Amino acid sequence: MDPILNLVLFIILVGIILVTGFIRMGFRTITVKGKLRNAVISPWDLHEFLNLKPGRPKSNEYYRFSEESVRSHAHRFVGRFDGAILHWKEVPILDLIVENKFPVSYLPEKAKKEDFFQAGLYALALSESGVSCSDTKLVVIYCLQDVAKRCVFGNDPKKCWDCGEGSIFSQQFDQREITKYLKRIDEVWYKKRRPKASPSETKCRPCPYSKNGKCNYSAV
Questions:
Q1: Within 10 Å of residue 146's Cβ, how many Cβ atoms?
Q2: Are residues 185 and 78 in contact, defined by beta-carbon separation less than 8 angstroms?
Q3: DSSP run (H or E) holding 95
Q4: Which of 61, 65, 167, 179 is 20–30 Å from 51 (CA)?
Q5: Which residues are registered as beta bridge partners of 167?
């Protein structure tokens, strides 16, 4: 057989395999920004959505939820997330948990661990409600307060995920890691273990127990 014809047939075969793979992966190939952009505002509140029968929402349709409360009975906390993207298959699936932060003067070069931890707590609470969080991404969006005010009160408010003036960071939700840190906090909060100081500029500056950016408990 002609070598050129063999090459053409091989390229076609590879193309068919790739297309089939992308079809099977479906929406999983969509980026974080893509999911934020393509999600529709949910016609249900979170409680109603989680109790829907499988197949009632459109298959693989992403739904956006804002300012919904979640509760963890196992870890004894209540919170209210800024945003979440979910869809339904056999069970409700959490795609993204979004945490918005509004610093005053500068955008961080990387997301703060405590901000990802806060977003992770919301995902942890949802996992207790029967939501699948195996592929959940934690998303932290930073936007300067002045920029956010112009957006909110302006005539043409921008979407955070399409605005070039903010910073978006994401990481995979790791339930074991979140639970480990939560356990350390619970030892201080519930079991009265004295905290161990680890002073640094980034920690001391917002700490209500610091003075002039210095830890008052560094000798503990």
A1: 12
A2: no
A3: strand 92-101
A4: 179
A5: 142
CB 77 within 8 A of CB 125: yes
Taking alpha carbons only, the member of 141, 143, 124 closest to residue 133 is 124
Strand, helix or coil at 210?
strand
H helix runs in 26-159, sequence order: 32-38, 46-50, 113-128, 145-153
Pick from 132, 137, 129, 134: nearest CA to 78: 129
H-helix or E-strand spanning residue 71: strand 63-72
Which helix (H) or strand (E) segment holds residue 18: the answer is helix 3-25
Count CB neighbours of 178 within 10 A.
Answer: 22
Residues 156, 46: Cα–Cα separation, whole Å? 28
User: Can you give the pTM of this predicted structure?
Assistant: 0.75
**Cβ neighbours, 10 Å, residue 130:** 10
d(C-alpha 109, C-alpha 100), whole Å:
15
Listing DSSP states for 132-199 in one string gives B-TT-EEEEEE--HHHHHHHHHSSSPPPTTT-TTSEEEEEE--HHHHHHHHHHHHHHHTS-PPPPP--
Instruction: Answer for the pair 115, 99: CB distance below 8 angstroms, yes or no.
Output: yes
pLDDT in tens, 45-103: 999 999 887 667 776 789 999 999 999 998 889 999 999 999 998 889 999 999 999 98
Distance of alpha carbon 202 from alpha carbon 20, whole angstroms: 48
CA distance 64 to 52: 16
